[in-house]
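Input:
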Amino acid sequence: DTAVSQTPKYLVTQMGNDKSIKCEQNLGHDTMYWYKQDSKKFLKIMFSYNNKELIINETVPNRFSPKSPDKAHLNLHINSLELGDSAVYFCASSQDRDRGRGYGYTFGSGTRLTVV
Amino acid sequence: SQQGEEDPQALSIQEGENATMNCSYKTSINNLQWYRQNSGRGLVHLILIRSNEREKHSGRLRVTLDTSKKSSSLLITASRAADTASYFCATDGMGSQGNLIFGKGTKLSVKP
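Output:
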């Protein structure tokens, strides 16, 4: 009964490859997010998405693309992986982003991506 | 741009002592939240304080918010070894389109 689950937990891949990280939430939340945590533990928003709107952080390279087949899933696709993409990627979800603004996020346990 | 900045970056205390972590931010907010991250794990939501609130309690946690100084503090009373983790403040800013912006975190070590 995991609330936000990400797979895989670890991903080691070579430069230039294309990879995907999957995320699913069973909380019935309206909005899902992807965050990147670098080696200094700094968390940076990459995307947020609900059934109305995708908001992309303008600093995220267009090699990264979110794909949401339905409200409970937000997958992250990364093309042409680079060494600098190595980080821990966290998926999260929350109740309606626009209304209330009083809800905490529920995070997945993270995917540690290592590009070699 | 980064919103929250925690202070100190690292804090080491003995079990039973209180731990205080501070957070400063730059722009107007709707609410401020604190999260805990154990090593190798995801973040866990601890407490949320709205911009019109000044203090909030949850168990051994006490959060204050001073919007005039754009700062918040998290106090953990009677700390336990299990409180060892990184603590992050996150702001839901008025210009952030509803996305939480996280600070760099305070690494708390509680020694038994």
